[in-house]
Amino acid sequence: MKAADIIVIGAGMAGISTASRLAEQAEVMVLEAESQPGYHSTSRSAAMFILNYGNQVLRELNQHSKCLYDELEQDLGKGSLLNVRGDLMVAGADEIEQFNHYLANSTGLDVINIDEALQLCPALRKDKVHKAAIERGAADIDVDTLLQHYIRSFKENNGQIEYNCRIKSLTYKNNRWLITTSSGLYSASTVVNAAGAWADQVGALAGLDPVGLIPKRRSAALIKVSEHESIDNWPLVLSASESWYAKPQSGLLIVSPADEDPVQPHDAWPEDLVLAEGIDRFQQFMNIEVNRIENSWAGLRTFAPDKNPVVGFSSQAQGFFWLAGQGGYGIQTAPVLAQFSADLILNHAPKISDILIRALSPDRFINQGATG
Ligand SMILES: Cc1cc2nc3c(=O)[nH]c(=O)nc-3n(C[C@H](O)[C@H](O)[C@H](O)COP(=O)(O)OP(=O)(O)OC[C@H]3O[C@@H](n4cnc5c(N)ncnc54)[C@H](O)[C@@H]3O)c2cc1C
Questions:
Q1: pLDDT at residue 310 is higher than 80
Q2: Which residues contact 306 (CB under 8 A, 6 or more apart)?
Q3: Cα atoms in the Cβ-side hemisphere of radius 13 Å centred on 202
Q4: 302: CA distance to ligand 1 center in Å?
Q5: Deepest in the core among 24, 112, 164, 177, taking most CB within 10 A?
Q6: Between the CA of residue 91 and those of 99, 110, 237, 369, what are the distances in Å?
Q7: Is 255 in a helix, a strand, or coil?
């Protein structure tokens, strides 16, 4: 049997970033079902950092995370992780309410006129766009550089990653978790559940109630744009009702239907009809002919019922830590959630507010409905 102080389940961005923090002060192993890190949601993201993306809890986390990205870039070099692209939100006639809702309590978001929006993205149809706003500082994230940085620093602190190692059972005995996997037995005093879309299933293996995580599929298609030049300079363009978005990538354009179909955890792939409908919504706003899809993919964005991440020790079992429900924000919030998780697990004072700590706590679901 292999033993460590802490075992992290899942080598996605959440598990690896947290393991890297923990390994500075503890003996840590990461167990991953797949043969490589980041295989599921982490490698399929749109790789954007948008300060105003998400609810109020997320917006606060994003602010904290931005500072930590800046700190990381002091070591890795400016521009190594974040490169400013901008996030242009456009609203059609029937999306004004969503547009105003997004604007409320936002930071660094400028409302601009339609002509300026067209300068930023000349493919936009002037007759369709009724409102526009830009978060100029929104940035592309180099996901691979970030993930590899965390893996490198984890290994420098003697962290070990076991691939092809799927958790089959979790039993708590004599103050330790005994973990049966597809490739042997492990034990640790603390287990971190960073299993992404599978986190409720992993919780169930340990005998815990589900927190109600719902994996939602999000798809993307890569298309060529022949009508316009210099598309690499365009911002990400997002519809105010989040019914499509588009983002340049290496001379091509990623178009997402921004689908949110609830599914069981699985190795996600896109459905043709979902892509076709999304491209149709995109084309209602953009003068771009789409004749062919060069490539397409899908991934799972996993949400708790209130859409806040679920981060903290379970009150149902000793030494079981939840790190799940990062939804569509798990790359941009990874540094702050890793820091927060490591602080809680290593018994350090957290650097985020008590209000935020409560908003993330797994107990918020267990205590639901309890009377005073
Ligand atoms: C299309 C799309 C666009 C997105 N865009 C953005 C964006 O622009 N910005 C942003 O910040 N976020 C974005 N996200 C969200 C982001 O990708 C996720 O929040 C993040 O990757 C979640 O990381 P994770 O480590 O929790 O999950 P994952 O990367 O899925 O990792 C979980 C790991 O756990 C492993 N695992 C599961 N069960 C077991 C088991 N029983 N035993 C062992 N291992 C197990 C899995 O194999 C997997 O590798 C996007 C997501 C999608 C799908």
A1: yes
A2: 55, 364
A3: 28
A4: 8
A5: 177
A6: 6, 14, 11, 38
A7: strand
> Could you tell me if 226 and 253 are in contact, meaning their C-beta atoms sit under 8 angstroms apart?
no
Q: Which atom of ligand 1 lies at the shortest distance from residue 194's CA? A: 26
* Pocket lining: 364 vs ligand 1, CB cutoff 6 Å: no
Output the pLDDT for position 365: 87
SS3 185: strand
Residue 367 has what pLDDT? Answer: 56
- Cβ(332) – ligand 1 distance below 6 Å: yes
Q: What is the pTM of this model?
A: 0.97
Kindly list the structural domains of the chain, giving each domain's residue range(s) and its CATH number in brackets, ordered by start.
2-44+143-212+305-365 (3.50.50.60), 87-136+214-301 (3.30.9.10)
Q: What angle do CA 361, 10, 78 make, to 5 degrees?
A: 85
At 121-166, the pLDDT tens digits run 999 999 999 999 999 999 999 999 999 999 999 999 999 999 999 9
Confidence category of residue 372, pLDDT binned at 50, 70, 90? very low
| Residue 90, φ and ψ in degrees, nearest 5 | -120, 140
